[in-house]
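Late entry, written up from scratch paper. The run itself happened at the end of the previous shift, but nothing got recorded in the book at the time, so transcribing now.
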Amino acid sequence: MKKLFLFLVLALFGFLSSYCSDKSDDFSGELTGASEYFVASMSELSNVLDLVKPGDVVTLKNGTWNNADVLFTGGGTESDPITFKAESVGGVVFSGSSKMRIAGSYLIVNGFAFENGNPSGGSIIEFRNGSQHAQHSRLTNVSIKDYSPADKNVDTKWVSMYGYRNRVDHCSFEGKTNSGTTLVVWMNATPDYHLIDNNYFGPRPDLGFNGGETIRIGTSDWSLYSSNTTVEHNLFEDCDGEIEIISNKSCHNVYRYNTFLNSNGTLTLRHGDDCEVYNNFFIDKAGKSGSGGVRVIGRRHKVYNNYFEGLNGNGFRAAISVTNGMPDSPLNGYYQVEDALIGFNTIVNCRQAFAIGSGANSSLTLPPVNVLAANNLVKTRSNTAMVVMHDPNGDVLWDGNLLDGASGLVAQEGIKVIALNFLSDGHILRPEATPLETNLATSSMMEVTFDIDLQDRPSGSRHVGCDQIDDAPVTNRPKRREDVGVRYEGSTSIAQNFHSEEIFFSGGQASPLTVSFREMEQRALTLFTLEGHLVEHNEGKGTGYGFYAATKPGVYLLRVIKNNWANTYKIAL
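Output as recorded:
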């Protein structure tokens, strides 16, 4: 067994009280020779920018900053980032026509609020200053609310991401009423590798025309280039701006662990190829007429382990919509769907589970080809069909799918009719175990080795649908409002109640990482990579906790929560 090192223990001050943290947080206030600057005006901030060096912290005085043109720039390093923060989270409020630019490397921008503004156009927050883009920089604990011009035809973007390996996390966005994407990733020929996680995307009313997306990654011009952006652990609630809640317009992006709640639209793979959509929740409890799931356009996409419930859309807005393509399609047209993998999804009480060849007309004449739909579990509404073939020439191989309560297309090869009983666990509807134990999944999509709960799928006994029936802990549930976005009260209470206790580490690499305490108490432990990606969550009353996913050598962050305190530990395997 290799020795495991504990580097340091950190109190969760400020935005460290949010759901996850990364290495940028760990070094603030711990650096030898680092300086802190307190500024109360735009001129003071401008003067400080000539002085800041790696590891420095610049704090803006609480209050309302009206019509401010804020520039945060500097050159931090991976171990010594430069932090620009509010005196207290949400205490610095930008209003009027205020906007913000972030340019440089290894910058952390933390705790600001934009409220009741009247911007004239452009971007509110931009990861660039002219031709200078941001790299390895982070926007966290920032809120934008009701920051729209009176004329909804004026186009603004609330956040424009440029550059390379930037992150937007634990931010809250709500009340956008005008044209323009809430958050957009702008591309060039080089992959971006951005991370968008743990944010709250709140109510956005129907714009009434195109341009009301909540997130867009890329543009049609760059759609055949790779962005490699990850969108995870976000909540999209009442996002009704237009049909495309998320508009994917680039290649090799990942959408996972997100929740779409009561939103009148879909996650749309509009342009680009080779994207993955997995372990997401699409739920409508409000009866929205156009609530949908995932719309597939393009080549080699994978849609698996997703949960769809109560969605009312059809055609382009079906739970899973696989569209027709356009011959010789231009970049802004509709590429033919080819080689899509759609498996291990659960679709419950939706108006239309599968729409194949949606949009078929005199222009969209190319049906989907070589589509595999395997091991999906569907419970339809009464008098509705599981599959609607908008183009009868759609080339779909149905394999190992289970269907309950359907009329229309039933009992064909690859779709088995079975009586199922679903029960609520307080979060989602799950099938009772007995029927699935005798109707195991086929060998299709063997690469899906886990389920929506992040439980293992044993290779010899995989269950149909997103849920592998298991008693193991559930570490991925639908997001609630309190799980994501800016954390105000949590930051204060945790900072005031720092607590330490004896903690012991063992294992790592070949053996599971084990975390032990002297006292048996109820705790929640979450392990992250330094970049802030969730590795594994463990909670319960005990003295020892195992982490079986920590198999790769490296440095991790372990967050421990007990009662009203929390600590973060940095460990190396």
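The longest strand covers residues 511-529.
(Scratch paper discarded after transcription.)
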